[in-house]
Give the backbone structure.
Amino acid sequence: MERKNAWNKYSKEQKEAVFSFAEEYKKFISDCKTERECVTELIVQAKAAGFEDLKEVIESGRSIQAGDKLYAANMGKMLSLFVIGKQPLERGMNILGAHIDSPRLDLKQVPLYEDTEMAMLDTHYYGGVKKYQWVALPLALHGVVVKKDGTKIMVNIGDNDGDPVFGVSDLLVHLASEQLEKKAAKVIEGENLDLLVGSIPFSSAEEKEKSKEAVKINVLNILKEQYNIEEEDFLSAEIEVVPAGKARDYGLDRSMIMGYGHDDRVCAYPSFAAILEAGVCEKTSVCLLVDKEEVGSVGATGMHSQFFSYMVAEILEAMGSYSQVVFNRCMANSNVLSSDVSAAYDPLYASVMEKRNCAYFGNGLVFNKYTGSRGKSGSNDANPEYMAKLRRMMEDNGVSFQTSELGKVDQGGGGTIAYILANYNMSVIDSGVAVLNMHAPWEIISKADLYEAKLGYTVFLKEA
């Protein structure tokens, strides 16, 4: 089958639209490097677009009707947006589901220690990472500290002008003969991914006499003076270690974007943009952004949570039509694009790809009929009838799309949130954007694929 590069179809005006949307997206992933930051920013944008807090609507006792725009946030790390459609909700919803967590390092609950007059922060990596990729990089601290009285202190150190950065040191090559003999998984051990954060001892002569941890004391004083954080506050903190720096244009032609967290914010952001652009459709439109996908979609803010189901039930109740039967019909009649990234073909690593069935930069939105590992283990496998429906919609609206698998059959694989939503008997397929360097600190995507994803998601909400 002939593959068509989307760049070849764009007029001058369309190409300008591609680059304009890319700038919006670059700002988003540069500013929003944690789940909380994503939810906070998207709520601001949603309110500006006329969305109301579902909780406030329910508390007011007001009925919900076609045309209403609603959002519901869960613990600051999960977000559902609804645009109520013209058809009864039991006819189903068109759902764009993506995740907003990304691989990273997390601070442990008791992270700060001193060793040989160096202050360090102990970490625990999150998600599937190649640990050796996280050394010798400028890193930033993003997150929240919650004090005993409930006060929240937002942390963002390393990404603002003039901020210091942090890092995990690497062994100099002159002394690395034994290290270089190790397998890649063991070159850097998880317990050695600790951040160097200070080296100046506290200057008080009295304290210097009393303490053998004068550098740690100095760091604690800085945290107290500048951020009102004390050592015990780490017990109720959620601080993520992420690459420092903004997303950048990649390539002489500026056709690509290098940034942290493309997986999966490169699907989350165009999903959000699509629900704003689609307006009121026949079916209720949903943008569902979840946490914890990188660790199995577990917990109260992951896709396994009942939060989304509860919100749908609340909407049905506020529309005066809730019953278990109507709820079941609503879920079973829904269509879903489980929007997650695919591996882009890389000519440097061609041996793990099967060229006829992989994703290519510039070829548009990717559909993965099935995911899983090896023998499709853990897979959602979409029905061909659903795939045919999507093909028609995309082709009729001039959306560039391609199909893909995640590498050769026996090379490995992976999963998404698709199988969880499919448990409701929904029609679900994986779709998203192709990524190079997936799960590395700096990933790469094509601006054309990002733009085609937004176009495809908008068509889906209007016509599925």
